[in-house]
Write a structure and sequence with these properties.
The chain is mainly α. The chain has one domain. The protein has a two-stranded antiparallel sheet. A hairpin with a 4-residue loop joins strand 1 and strand 2. Helix 3 runs antiparallel to helix 8. The two termini are about 40 Å apart. The N terminus is likely disordered.
Length: about 240
């Protein structure tokens, strides 16, 4: 197999050769934001503190990875089909969507800021936190999928990343590679702790996981505000390409 074919595609709509890496780089902010969503990170930490952490963690990871792959892949396919028919309309549509999502995230950041707990007041615990350690492996697969998709922040990010990839003009092989890289980056906060527990053992990881859980719950609102603010800036900046 020609290695170049895996990293370069030809945009048949404009006759340009498109490299994989700049396209992947353009969606890294969205992928990182999905990975840094506080609630899914708290969920995987709680899963890894259960009686059978590796098995439970694998179940959660399967649901997370499967849902992200299917969702991003579907968006890529749909936008690629639209771009084949009318490339300019598709690209302008992506820019409009980026602008809209960026403004939405800016509004959400302000909302979270206004609802932040008063100094010295503990942040409210998400309802799912107390249920996760009690779930069976099949239920954890569903929970992992829900953590990836049933999230006010993640779904627009998935649509944004998938639409950017779909309109980039990559070949089919390069698109598959781009989706795989995007999903891998978006999953590092789930797969990283799972790998650490599998390597070091549940007993040696317990204290670190407990500290991480406490820190995440205490700083949940602050983390969300910071992530939303950065995303709003990035997406509005990308969306302004509409006025090129």
């Amino acid at each position: 197999m020609n290695v170049t074919a895996t990293v370069v595609g030809r945009d048949a709509r404009q006759g340009r050769v498109i490299s994989l890496w700049p396209v992947v780089g353009a969606v890294l902010p969205q992928a990182m934001a999905i990975a840094l969503s506080p609630v899914p990170v708290i969920c995987i930490v709680l899963v890894l503190m259960s009686d059978r952490p590796v098995r439970a963690g694998l179940s959660f990871a399967v649901g997370w990875l499967g849902a992200l792959t299917i969702a991003i892949g579907l968006v890529v396919w749909l936008t690629d089909e639209v771009a084949d028919d009318n490339d300019k309309v598709a690209r302008d549509g992506v820019d409009v969507f980026q602008l809209a999502v960026g403004v939405l995230f800016a509004v959400l950041a302000v909302r979270y800021w206004r609802k932040r707990p008063a100094p010295g007041t503990p942040a409210p615990r998400p309802a799912i936190v107390d249920r996760v350690p009690l779930l069976s492996p099949p239920a954890l697969v569903v929970t992992g999928a829900a953590a990836a998709l049933a999230n006010l922040k993640n779904l627009p990010l998935i649509l944004s990343a998938g639409s950017q990839l779909g309109t980039a003009g990559l070949s089919s092989g390069s698109l598959i590679g781009a989706v795989a890289i995007t999903v891998a980056v978006a999953s590092f906060s789930v797969l990283g702790p799972l790998a650490a527990v599998a390597v070091t053992g549940p007993e040696r990881s317990a204290r670190a996981l407990k500290s991480l859980e406490a820190w995440l719950l205490a700083n949940l609102n602050t983390i969300t505000i910071v992530v939303l603010t950065i995303l709003a800036t990035v997406l509005i900046g990308q969306g302004l390409d509409l006025f090129r």
